[in-house]
Design a protein that fits this description.
Layout (H helix, E strand, L loop, with lengths): L7 E5 L7 H13 L3 E6 L5 H8 L6 H22 L4 H27 L3 H8 L1 H17 L8 E4 L19 H11 L5 E6 L2 E3 L5 E3 L5 H11 L4 E6 L20 E3 H9 L10 H6 L3 E6 L7 E5 L6 E17 L9 H11 L7 E3 L3 E7 L11 H8 L3 E16 L9 H9 L6 E4 L5 E7 H16 L1
Parallel strand pairs: 1-2, 1-7, 2-4, 3-4, 7-9, 8-10
Antiparallel strand pairs: 5-6, 9-10, 11-13, 11-14, 12-13, 14-16, 15-16
The structure holds adenosine-5'-diphosphate (ADP) and aspartyl phosphate (PHD).
Adenosine-5'-diphosphate binds next to loops.
Length: about 450
Amino acid sequence: MSKVSSVTVAKFGGTSLKNYQSMVRCANIVIEEPSIKVVVLSASAGVTNLLVELTAKDVSDAIASTLIDNIKNIQLDISAGLFEQKQIEQNRVNGYVLNLVHELEYASQMLREQFSLKLVDEILSFGERFSSYLFTEIMTELLSNVDDKPQLVRFDARRIIKTDSRFGHARPDLTAIKQQSQLSLNLPECLYITQGFVGEDSFGNTTTLGRGGSDFSAALIAEAINADKLQIWTDVAGIYSSDPRFVTTAKPIKALSFNEAAELATFGAKVLHPATLLPAIRSQIDVFVGSSLEPSAGGTHLTTKPSTSGVRAIALRENQTLVTLSSPNMLLASGFLARVFAILAKYELSVDLITTSEISVALTFDNINGVSEGILPQECITELEDFCAVSIEGELSLVAVIGNHNPDHETISSTELLFKSLGDYQIRMICHGASRHNVCFLVKQSIAKNVVTNIHDQIFG
Ligand SMILES: Nc1ncnc2c1ncn2[C@@H]1O[C@H](COP(=O)(O)OP(=O)(O)O)[C@@H](O)[C@H]1O
Ligand SMILES: N[C@@H](CC(=O)OP(=O)(O)O)C(=O)O
């Protein structure tokens, strides 16, 4: 490995780390790109979901034990791939893995005795702790015969990702992250391997940044160390015109503006965590999204340049709740919305979309962010019912059509094309105009994927 002046942070998602072969592919990407100085890893695919199940309030001892066994087997399979022929080495690695498994068992037992969000985050952090340990072992093995190799250092992300104490969706302390990164990392001499998703509050408790938060961790580290580039390696060759898992005609997009990518991420394109782009935009870091399965296939580059007008992509976010508040008192009255929002703020509920008519206001909520199982907390409903009728509808999906909707520069407006293609569906709510970059609407969850596929095919031909 030769010395380089530019610094890249590379993040590998769980889909890229699901087994031994996948980890080797990622390790080779790192070895072949000398500018990569920090590697940020998610948990192997499926592990965080298992950990989330393990932290459910009603989990029984038997189910907890099965879940922990499943997690353990994913790790031991990776270790088995690594040291197929070397029993002593395999025993050493398995010993480390089993120690972590015991720690996990202990934390899970404590949680079943007394539930706390602090302990939930501690448990959720194990996925990344396993994967970063195994990945470091794989890198070390692959580099064992290389002469001019970098000094590999695995470090605990909690040393630098300092956050507040909002367990489950902790907010980063940017100043502390910068300070700690500069104190702890010896760049560009060493090659660091660390965990995404995981942080630590000022009391030394483990926190997590929210599901999918490893992208955000990588962007925060990139900003803190003044990196030039951030690479997000996943299982698809970049950001597509829609989710390629169900829109089979979706195409990769070579370049996308930060604004468009931010809208796409916010409105459900799982490929990027919505907060990832803030540090990148703030600190002008080049962002690349590519496939670790096929690194040479290229991917998407995010740029500050505005893109051409028209629709660029369609995103889908499931599990949305629509809340309609109506009251004849709204007519020609002032202060109604202020009262509604004061109550929602009190319950820390964050509204996504909003539309109003003379006597009603419709609001949408993302179930992940605060509204559990599609229902507002009963106390909140009661407070709202003091001055308006409340109707709640679940099992909805939000479709977001992202692009540059600029009627001044289009001969046939893409919005017009979109509205034509919506004619066949029952739309529950539509939002257009707040941003030039998106038009959003709600449809029943049962038809949402069909709606996205059909609109995609009509717009992109
Ligand atoms: N517009 C889009 N472009 C690319 N992928 C998308 C898009 N929308 C949703 N996805 C989904 O995001 C997935 C990658 O995100 P995720 O599963 O979280 O991967 P990782 O484990 O790498 O973080 C893809 O497999 C794809 O199904
Ligand atoms: N492992 C965490 C964090 C993460 O970002 O994962 P991924 O990169 O695989 O989406 C999660 O599943 O939420």
